[in-house]
Design a protein that fits this description.
Number of strands: 18
Number of helices: 4
Oligomer: single chain
Strand content: over 45%
Largest sheet: 7 strands, mixed
Shape: globular
Helix content: 10-25%
Number of domains: 1
Structural class: alpha+beta
CATH topology: Tetrahydropterin Synthase, Chain A
CATH superfamily: 6-pyruvoyl tetrahydropterin synthase/QueD
């Protein structure tokens, strides 16, 4: 038997429901190891095939979906043809979500963690492996971030791909510089403000009241709706693309006066993002 490994095969950008934290945006780096006999090319599996088969299977399951603990006592779930409706009662309040089934990953667990997601993924990935591969080892890990970060959830209704789903998210690094120098206090301030936040577009609000917001829109995959406590939302003008997010951060009020050349480097998950710059007069 021989082992083949691929580090950082892909990144799973998703959101999940948690009894204590509510709606959590997450980014997990995926490492894999395949154990098996050599094929007629003297390989366990060609690297190109590893990326094509396994990344495609991951992209078609948990990536850019809402990951739901099917066995959680906080969950109420209704499924019908072409539709899935759920209510999750967390310590922070109730979260409602309605979408096509493709936007939800139902995991047979009471809580969502990396072990639960690995158990969900492994049989799905095994289906796309050749017979000479006898074992698949899978690891999900967070990116090491030296500084502040936040978890956010959003949806991009104009997107033609999976980003259109109203509840997918990211664990994102933030860098703020003033006149070229990192400003860790400003970074920490934003991270505290956006702790497990939902970034919603004001144009998608369809109901507001009793401390709750409801967002809804139609996208290529179908109708999406989400309702959640207003305290867990940053309501933005326009789309919540990372380009807009960087611009929005540059305009946010701060606890102390800032002047000079402000640069915002906002990440969307791992090793990608957008930059916004603004000159603030003294």
């Amino acid at each position: 038997m021989t082992s083949l490994f691929v580090e950082q095969l892909t990144v799973i950008d998703c959101s999940y429901l948690d009894a204590a934290r509510g709606l959590v945006g997450e980014s997990w780096i995926v490492d894999i190891e395949l154990i098996g006999d050599l094929d007629d090319q003297s390989m366990v599996l060609d690297f190109g095939e590893v990326k094509r088969r396994l990344k495609r299977a991951i992209d078609g399951s948990v990536d850019h979906s809402l990951v739901v603990p099917r066995l959680a006592p906080e969950l109420s779930l209704t499924q019908s043809a072409g539709r899935i409706d759920l209510l999750f009662r967390s310590d922070l309040g109730a979260f409602e979500h309605q979408s096509p089934p493709v936007a939800v990953s139902l995991v047979d667990a009471a809580t969502i963690d990396t072990d639960a997601v690995i158990a969900y993924l492994k049989p799905r990935l095994a289906e796309v492996l050749p017979a000479n591969v006898s074992e698949l080892r899978l690891q999900l890990r967070n990116e090491h971030i030296d500084g502040a970060y936040y978890h956010y959830t959003h949806g991009l209704k104009k997107h033609r791909g999976h980003c259109q789903r109203i509840a997918h998210g990211h664990r994102s690094h933030i860098e703020i510089r003033v006149d070229g120098t990192r400003a860790p206090r400003l970074e920490a301030e934003l991270a505290a403000r956006w702790l497990d936040i939902y970034l919603g577009s004001d144009e998608d609000i369809v109901a507001r009241g009793n401390g709750r917001l409801r967002y809804a829109y139609d996208a290529p995959e179908g109708r999406f709706e989400i309702a959640l406590p207003e305290a867990r939302v940053e309501c933005m003008q326009g789309d919540t693309t990372v380009e807009r997010i960087a611009e929005w951060i540059a305009q946010l009020p701060r606890s102390a006066a800032v002047s000079g050349e402000l640069e915002i480097r906002a990440y969307e998950g791992v090793m990608k993002g957008a930059i916004a710059r603004r000159t603030i007069a003294a």
